[in-house]
Amino acid sequence: MAGLGVAAVLDQVTSHASSLGLFDTVNGHEPKSAPTGGASGLTAAVWADAVDSISAGLALTGSRLVFNIRLYTSMTAPPLDAIDPKIVDAVDQLMAAYNGAFTLNGLIREVDVFGANGPGLSARAGYINQDGKLMRVMTITLPLIVNDVWTQTP
Predict the structure, then answer these.
(1) Which residue intervals of 1-154 are DSSP H helices?
(2) Strands 110-111 and 122-130
(3) What are the pLDDT digits (tens) for 64-105?
(4) How far, rounded to the nearest angstrom, does the alpha carbon of residue 46 sit from its chain's CA centroid?
(5) Is 146 exposed, middle or buried (0-12, 13-18, 19+ CB in 10 A)?
(6) d(CA 122, CA 61)
C-alpha cells in the first residue's frame, strides 16, 4: 500500500478539468486572490477538503478523499444573463464525467456519486467577494473512494 497518493490524485483531478478546455486556468489550490478573467471567463480551483476512513476489508482500511472544485466567474461579466448558464454548463460537463467510469487512471476505485460513504457528488452555487471583486461561484464536492489505503494492525 502506498497510502492515499494525494499529489497524484490532485494532479489527475486538475488535469482532467483542464482537458475539457472550459477554463482559462485550473489551480491545484484555493486561490488567495481573485482570479483574473481570460478568454472563457471561467477559472477553476481544486483543493482537498476531507479524508475519511471507510471499511475495505478485515485487515485494510480504505479512504473517502474529498476535493472541492470551485468554478469562478465575474459577477459583472456581460451579458449578465449568461453568467449562470455558463457556469452551470461547466458544472454539468464535470458532473457528467464524474458520473461515468471515472477512476482517475486507476488511482481511485470510484466517485462516491450517491454518497454511500458520506455526502455524495454535488454542486452548490454562491458568491464570494475576493479582493473587492464579486465573483459568482459553484463549488463541486467530489468524493473519491480509494481502496486499501492503510493496514490495520491488532
Answers:
(1) 6-19, 83-99
(2) unpaired
(3) 999 999 999 998 888 889 999 999 999 999 999 999 878 888
(4) 5
(5) buried
(6) 25
> Exposed, middle or buried: residue 70 (CB in 10 Å: 0-12, 13-18, 19+)?
buried
Give the number of other Cβ atoms within 10 Å of residue 115's Cβ.
Answer: 13
Is residue 79 reached through a cis peptide bond, with omega within 30 degrees of 0 on the bond before it?
yes
Q: Which residues contact 139 (CB under 8 A, 6 or more apart)?
A: 68, 69, 70, 71, 123, 124, 126
Looking up cell 449562470 gives 84
Sign, CA torsion 20/102/62/5:
negative
Question: Which CATH number is 6-30+40-151 given?
Answer: 3.30.2000
> Which grid coordinates are listed for 113?
456519486
Q: Would the pTM count as exceeding 0.70?
A: yes
